[in-house]
Write a structure and sequence with these properties.
Layout (H helix, E strand, L loop, with lengths): L7 E7 L21 E2 L1 E2 L10 E3 L2 E8 L3 E7 L4 E6 L2 E4 L2 E5 L7 E5 L2 E5 L4 E5 L2 E4 L6 E6 L6 E2 L9 E6 L7 E3 L12 E5 L5 E4 L2 E4 L4 E4 L14 E6 L5 H5 L3 E5 L2 E5 L7 E4 L13 E3 L7 E7 L2 E6 L8 E4 L2 E3 L3 E3 L2 E3 L10 E4 L2 E6 L2 E5 L9 E3 L5 H4 L7 E6 L2 E6 L2 E13 L2 E10 L3 E8 L2 E10 L2 E11 L8 E4 L10 E25 L5 E13 L11 E7 L3 E15 L3
Parallel strand pairs: 14-16
Antiparallel strand pairs: 1-48, 2-44, 3-4, 4-48, 5-43, 6-7, 7-8, 8-9, 10-11, 11-12, 12-13, 14-15, 16-22, 17-21, 18-19, 18-22, 20-21, 23-24, 24-25, 25-26, 27-28, 28-29, 29-32, 30-31, 33-34, 34-35, 35-36, 37-38, 38-39, 39-40, 41-42, 42-43, 44-47, 45-46, 45-47, 45-48
Length: 575
């Protein structure tokens, strides 16, 4: 492309589209910034017509220990905080003795549950308590000495079981469906009377090894032939309650709770019974691929439960489960291996009905549903150069204001669901970048507000706070800035000179400072503008440069709508 010397070129920077930290200086779009901090598009205030300073974080509450879990119940408008070893609801301690470990609250069947890898609790009134396992009736229609029909599966959460028998009026010995029952519990028995009402009795002798109860008087035959009239409850603890309690991953799907993350069973997925979080059948589990690759996340979406596993040598990393009706077992959830071989390094989320997860290369999205061959699309090229250098193990994912927010310690990377750009053969999100100067340990959304739990050291004192990122006041202090690209005006081989009257900026703010830099030198101050609303004309006098870059900086909230820069083309660059 030829250009006569002395020609005037106008560059208009507007319709800003986020950051590009890829370090591809010759490829960064003029609508993006190679270096920006604490600015975003607030679609509520300007409908995305400008970029502006993020809201500040405002302290709501301080706690005496690290906050490991946070949950807001939208139905009751109640906040739940897991701080140290306590569950705090409102201003009261609802439970003492939970693990100091990352935890999960969730709502199921209108009840709030809690899991932390050690405890499995449910709210009861003002307090939390251990989930009491449903006691299954494992055999029905049993004769005193044998037979019967298998009815319900053993519950992993309960050491107790029931058998129901049809008495014959003569037999005193009643054999259970298990031998070597636990002798630290005296079985309980009920016998139906003439009205069919079950009456508890203790007139029996127990043979624990044989799994037998001998009644002092033979229970009568039932009034209705074939109807069970004897119930015996006994204990046979398999020690399997820990398989559920040690889970750290949980997702509600299809009116059931699914759980995984037990380090003893790294590839196993369990689910509870239909609408009963106290009943986890010992048969309702699935092994997802090989156990050398642990499950990292459970995500419900696209009419399936997605199981995202760590990278595996066998490339069996992404599985999904669809509800299926089986003629024998009823509703089941067979495991299907997807066609995706890329593993999940940290965690995943359903973002606007798109299944997203972090691999070792950045954010990936599953771009097709379960009816077709699944593929993934990379979504974070704009920020990978920074994001992948963070401590990804501390990652928190949450959806807020149409953004997928990736929180890592004090850093926040925001993917915009409303802005896409084509890179090579696929579309990716536009991104923004925050630093809130506080380490975040948990997050939730409450009444549309982003609530952050922080862990920070203030003058040698460790403090733990609950903050709301909703402070839009004009006097808040947040350092923010936006830089334009190192712009060569599409003529890298020519020297350029700015038109000192040819810079126009449309911006708004209490105090905004504009800087300019040429040819990778240092930024020079142009001017600080106070109480600006509308257009200003900075006088930029720079000669014989190859590239130029502007920076808009403030410690107070500001908005940037557009800026225009004119320059004259000079002679060829000399070496």
């Amino acid at each position: 492309m030829s250009q006569p010397s002395g020609a005037l070129i106008t560059r208009n920077y507007s319709n800003y589209r986020g950051v590009d930290f890829s370090n591809r200086k010759d490829e960064v779009n003029i609508y993006r910034s190679p270096d920006a901090l604490n600015v975003w598009k607030n679609y509520k205030s300007t409908e995305g017509k400008s970029i502006e300073t993020r809201p500040d974080v405002e302290l709501l509450e301080e706690y005496s220990n690290t906050i490991f879990g946070l949950f807001f119940n939208e139905n009751t408008k109640t906040m739940y905080v897991h701080s140290g070893t306590q569950i705090i609801v409102g201003e009261s301690v609802a439970y003492e003795g939970v693990a100091e470990h990352k935890s999960k609250f969730f709502v199921f069947d209108n009840k709030v549950y809690f899991m932390d890898g050690t405890n499995y609790l449910v709210q009861n009134g003002d307090n939390f308590e251990e989930v009491v396992g449903f006691i299954p009736t494992t055999t029905i229609s049993r004769t005193p000495n044998q037979g019967g029909t298998t009815y319900e599966d053993v519950n992993l959460l309960s050491p107790y079981r029931k058998n129901t028998f049809c008495g014959d009026g003569t037999s005193k010995d009643y054999y259970l469906d298990s031998k070597e029952i636990d002798n630290d519990y005296t079985p309980e028995a009920w016998i139906a009377d003439d009205t069919g009402h079950e009456v508890k009795t203790t007139d029996f002798i127990v043979d624990y090894e044989a799994g037998k109860l001998t009644f002092l008087e033979a229970p009568p035959a039932p009034l209705t032939d074939g109807q069970d009239n004897v119930v015996i409850q006994y204990k046979k603890d398999t020690g399997k309650a820990e398989t559920i309690k040690k889970c750290t991953l949980v997702e509600v799907f299809d009116n059931r709770v699914f759980a995984s993350g037990n380090p003893d069973y790294p590839n196993r997925l369990w689910h509870c019974s239909l609408q009963d979080a106290s009943y986890w059948s010992d048969l309702d589990y699935y092994d997802e691929g090989t156990n050398d690759s642990p499950v990292k996340a459970l995500v419900a979406g696209n009419n399936a439960l997605w199981v995202l596993k760590a990278p595996s040598k066998s490339n069996t990393t992404i599985f999904y489960h669809n509800p299926t009706i089986d003629s024998t077992y009823g509703k089941i959830y067979p495991s299907t291996h997807s066609s995706i071989s890329t593993g999940c390094k940290t965690t995943g989320i359903n973002f606007n009905d798109t299944i997203c997860f972090y691999s070792g290369q950045g954010l990936e999205a599953i771009t097709s549903d379960i009816t077709t061959e699944q593929t993934i699309s990379h979504k974070s090229s704009m920020v990978d150069s920074r994001l992948l250098n963070e401590n990804l193990d501390n990652m928190i994912l949450i959806e807020w204001e149409g953004y997928l927010v990736t929180i890592i310690d004090n850093k926040m990377y925001l993917a915009d669901s409303r802005q896409y750009s084509q890179i090579n053969d696929h579309y990716e999100y536009e991104w923004y970048y925050f630093d809130i100067n506080k380490k975040v340990t948990a997050a939730t959304i409450a009444n549309g507000e982003l609530i952050l739990c922080t862990d920070e050291n203030k003058r040698g004192v460790q403090t733990y706070g609950l903050y709301s990122m909703t402070n839009y006041s004009s006097n808040r202090k947040v350092e923010s800035y936006w830089t334009t690209i190192e712009d060569e005006f599409n003529y890298p081989q020519y020297q350029k000179t700015t038109n000192k009257k040819g810079c126009v900026v449309d911006m708004e703010g209490e105090e905004i400072t504009i800087y300019v830099k040429t040819d990778n030198k240092t930024f020079d101050l142009i001017k600080t503008y106070k109480n600006t609303k509308g257009y200003v004309v900075p006088r930029i006098k720079k000669k014989k440069w190859k590239s130029i870059q502007l920076k808009f900086y403030s410690n107070y909230p500001f908005s940037l709508y557009s800026n225009t820069l004119e320059s004259y083309v000079g002679n060829y660059i000399k070496r």
